Amino acid sequence: MSGVPELFGSYVFNDEVMRNKLPKDVYKSLKRTIDRGEDLDINVANVVANAMKDWAVELGATHFTHWFQPLTGITAEKHDSFITPTGSGKVIMDFSGKELIKGEPDASSFPSGGLRATFEARGYTAWDPTSYAFVKDGSLFIPTVFCSYGGEALDKKTPLLHSMEAISDQAMRILKLFGNTTARRVNTTVGPEQEYFLVDKEYFDKRKDLFFCGRTLFGAMPPKGQEMDDHYFGTIKPRVAAYMKDLDEELWKLGILAKTKHNEVAPAQHELAPIFTTTNIATDHNQLTMEIMKKVAAKHGLVCLLHEKPFAGVNGSGKHNNWSISTDTGVNLLDPGKTPYENAQFLLFLVAVIKAIDEYQDLLRISVSSAGNDHRLGANEAPPAVVSMFLGDELQAILEALESGKSYDGSEKKTMEIGVHVLPSFPKDTTDRNRTSPFAFTGNKFEFRMLGSAQSISDPNIVLNTIVAEELKQFADELENAKDFTKSLNELIRKTIKEHKKIIFNGNGYSDEWIAEAEKRGLLNYKTTVDALPHFVDKKNVELFTSHNVFTETEMRSRLEILYETYSKTINIEALTMIDMMKKQIMPAVSDYTAFLAGNIAAKKAVSESVNTDAESELLTKLSDELSELYKKEKVLEEAEAKENSVDAYETAVYYRDKVFGAMQDLRETVDKIEPDVASDFWPVPTYSELLFRV
Fold first, then answer.
1. What is the location of CATH 1.20.120.1560 in the chain?
2. Which of helix, strand or coil describes residue 639?
3. Quick one: pLDDT band at residue 396, thresholds 50, 70, 90?
4. pTM
């Protein structure tokens, strides 16, 4: 490996490369497009495209692709060669500005929620210059948005960019009220921590459920799980360490700021954490990270599992979304700061976030909803399905003092004046974060912990950006017309705290007591995806997204349709896989073992009727009864799966949740009860012991 500074970003058409490869005037024009959103002149685009092509060819690229993020949750790419025929029967390597700016991939096979029919194949990709192009696997990858002929968004990037514009516009209004004349834009930043499991490929290949579903549909707990707490931050096994080393190098080549790696709580579970960057780039980088994690694992004879709950009974995998707001001048608006000016500003942004989380609990829950994440939320060391906020004891006490108008005794800490004489002084919050909270303040950012490991971070960040933009808009509308800014600011902060403090909870979010308390407070508890999704198109939510030009109502309803379909299809695939494994693996194995036991009993009795066969007979009887139970439950699942015929997406999702998934759980319970009683030579699939502990 070359030196890390030389390696980092070496396959990225980043600012340094652009500065070196482009004429000065072209570079400046492109920077204005990137920084200010100005239109890109086609002549500039042609120069950029040619420089980008030459650079990519130097790195071994022969093709280019418009890389986009359809509503599948993964990325899509179609590769075209740079070759262009000449009149002499030869070819040249060519790439035009038109090819850089726009592509026309077939859009008919991507989920659209009814926005377009299958026969309407045309879709458009448009270059997103705010996210750097890169070279991978012999192709130049150009990050793009993806839309229909009529302009409807068919991807996860377009609304994300709209939401970033929305929060920037409204935050700038607030900053101007505080006399900020230097900032030109506000960006949200994200650092998404990525949890994952590594299993041996040999064992993976023998498990149809892992292959088709990404999670185990059966599996009894091994003698040891995570109860000893000895895996978290423990010594990294050599094989895993080699994987992590290769992964770091591949990510660094693509300019991905992979910073931290360690063992997670569950056996065979690990985590990778990057340094934060702007939300748009962070989203692109996280999609790349998940892809590369899987590819690198294959080189080491491993499989990287990104499902939210691949193994029952142990820690699931999440994605902690560390979200903050910063100006283009480098000021973090969620940092309490050291000056009166900054503290007053901080308080206003803080209460805007508090109000947003309280008023739009439903959208935050919806943004992390999936069939996979339903297994994780509320389970082992995962936040509950109830949305709440953690601020820490100190900051909570400060808000209580602000609400009551009383002074805050922070004499043991260094105090900082907030710049509004009516409001008390307060120290910078130094408390530990609450790992049980779904949405925790961690000093200068919020950690949103409900995301599932496999999902795109686009959806939750679209929601976060938009809901905070809405609250900042309301604040700006009020304060811009205030006759006495200081007085109005004081009253606004106090009023907001009083009306929305119910969302703040600093205790143990894993406890049953909190769920009961949350209900008393009137907080929402959508336990499953199907409970949450209908509220996506509630009137207030439609008004929110349409007013900030993030979604049209049509786009929202189409996405809801896709979410329902994805949920139902996921459980359908799991049910079919379970039926297949039952018929071809589990029941034949149990039958074979009972036949083996019966043979042993018969052989012993043939020697002498006095030979004691109580152990074999008892086990034979038990397994035979359980096999009969297994057969009946498999038939119930098979019938339930076959009966679904509703044309309504919501009704279909409800059916799969209540009938199909319920039958799957019943069947699993019996299989997991049988597994410990069957000899290992007869059990047809690798066990949890092998999957979790033999890497």
1. 566-693
2. helix
3. confident
4. 0.93
